[in-house]
Amino acid sequence: MVTEIDSETLRSRLSDGDDILLVDVRTPSEVAQGALPNAIHIPMAVIPMRVAELPRDRELVIYCRSGARSYHTCQFLAQQGFDNAVNLRGGIIAWARHGYEIGQIKGA
């Protein structure tokens, strides 16, 4: 089972300063159109090769465009022993629908 968080709760927790790592699993062309502020980008296709880069001692909120790819990424991470991966329900579409900030990926 995948744990999920909605946009409102995520925004509130980020505003409160919770230590959450946002991981964008969309394609580079999707990310170029904007991303959640302070997110890191690891495309879903390369997650298996870069899984060692993800911390196990910090909450990970995984997101994509609509929440489907990130859901599957969370399932994969759970199979790898991650108990800290959370799916952003509705993805960046739901985030933007609430009028929340869209920025650029760190280092992009």
What features would you describe in this structure?
By secondary structure, the protein is α/β, with parallel strands linked by helices. 33% of the residues lie in helices and 18% in strands. The chain has a five-stranded parallel sheet with strand order 1-5-4-2-3. 27% of the residues are buried.
What is the fold's blueprint, element by element?
Blueprint: E1 3-5, H1 7-15, E2 20-24, H2 28-31, E3 40-41, H3 47-50, E4 59-63, H4 68-79, E5 85-88, H5 91-97
Parallel strand pairs: 1-5, 2-3, 2-4, 4-5
Number of helices: 5
The major pleated sheet works out as: 5 strands, parallel
| Helix-strand category | alpha/beta
- Tell me roughly what share of residues is in helical segments: 25-40%
Q: How many DSSP-defined strands?
A: 5
The whole-number mean of residue pLDDT values reads 95
Q: Kindly, what is the distance between the CA atoms of the first and last residues, rounded to a whole number of angstroms?
A: 33 Å
Cα-atom radius of gyration: 12 Å
Strand content: 15-25%
CA-based shape: globular
